[in-house]
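Bit of a strange request maybe. I'm writing a small parser for structure token strings and I need a real example to test against, not something I typed by hand. Could someone generate the tokens for this chain?
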Amino acid sequence: MKLPEMHERLASLFPLESDIPEDVRLLAPLHQRAILLNGEMRIWKGETRPVHSAVRVRKDDGSLAPVELGSVPVTGTAEADEALAAAWAAWDNGRGRWPTMPVAERIACVENFTNQISARRREIVKFIMWEIGKSLADAEKEFDRTIAYIQATIAELKRLDNDNSRFQIVEGTIAQIRRSPLGLVLCMGPYNYPMNETFTTLIPALIMGNVVLFKPPRFGVLLYYPMLESFRSAFPAGVINIVYGEGSVVVPHVMASGKVNVLALIGSSKVADQLKKAHPKSNRLRAVLGLDAKNAAIILPDADLDLTVKECIAGSLTFNGQRCTAIKMILVHQAIAEEFLRRFCDAIAKLKIGMPWESGVMLTPLPELAKVEYLHACIEDARAKGATVVNAAGGAAAETLFHPAVVFPVKEGMTLYRDEQFGPVIPVAAYEDVETALQYVITSEHGQQVSIFGTNPDQVAHLIDPLVNQVCRVNLNSQCQRSPDVFPFAGRKDSAEGTLSVHDALRAFSIRTMVAAKQTEASKKLLDSIVLGNKSNFVNTRFIL
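Reply from user aminoacidic:
Good idea to test on real output. This should exercise your parser:
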């Protein structure tokens, strides 16, 4: 199929408004005017920003128009300062109700919140689907995985706190060592997993006793409206405050205040660098960052091509390739490059493209037209430097629907060789010596994951040993991915700072703190009085069931 024909086909996939199934419709545009500040739902009367769906609808004249989802407040630095003040008061130099609350009570608050948002699953899932174009099935998975993550976090915190409930006696010193909160956390999540990735930092930060300023992503903001009342009622005033407005304005302003103790960001390394530099006291700032990635797949000459193609399709095109863990560069041995490309392109041609509510859909509309323009620019840059699009109609687009493009051979100097494209364009390069593929990973600015496809244990082992010192996860005959959430999720170089998993996240947002005394009779009596009288929320031997 030629590009013009594919363009017409893609345009025809957008529905008439009357064709949208009743059960996936939003009842009406949501014009949000409430913002959560200091435990109150404030009515915003200032500037607002319209929110449009990734989905377009066809008009009677054949034109395509964006679906209006509603609007959100555009607050400024004054509101950011108010949110800072509320959070700072709730923290109260570590004396606030939330940071001094018993762990079991904080857990109960998080459970209350979780139960409330679970009751609004359908509404939240619809907003995820409509705003960012994620398939309904994947939006449901994102919600359910988030709830499972919260439940796993609660279970892990119970285990951690119970393990720390005993006293230690070493060299004449009695001590109890627990984990205490760090202070004020600025939390920002990405648009591609606007709920799940955000909550993997937000929930651990809260449950460990920190107070939070939360800046929703630009795409995927309306889904938080159904949660505002749950945040308000489940947590003490000021513990969580939501900041809207232009991120480039309000976020540097917040950082420049010097009141942020932890920056939790899932985003770009460039933004992270700028925000860290904006903080006036860098030694007081802890950063928990999930950043860029350019994960490579290295396909060895003896790879099982059926398996390899299947995994590379899922790895490079799940949610249109808009995942930090996506395979964004394929390095295939030249002996099998032609056969791999043939099978890979055939598999892409069979993928279902359509609207996010359609059953079995794999490729859906992108959240913004600017991404379509960027992907086209990447393709044209590669073409100008000697590459070609090897799959039929690759790169064809109609508004926000973009047909995947397989670009080969991609070489150093092309944008696609090093840049994280974050979309349905798949660069492929052939190599003769496996050292070439290894050098690609070594010289990359990123170091999150890599996938190795091969069956020869000697060859695979030869790659594993150097690669584990370049990336934080080596996947054997499988796509790059984050799950299971109990496994470490980290990155080297410009890909991350800190480690996230259910276990590690609790530690990322807390610090080991101890109360110690000399092993004397007076100390024993004092500690007994504190513990038996339940006088301290820190020094205690309570067990959480």
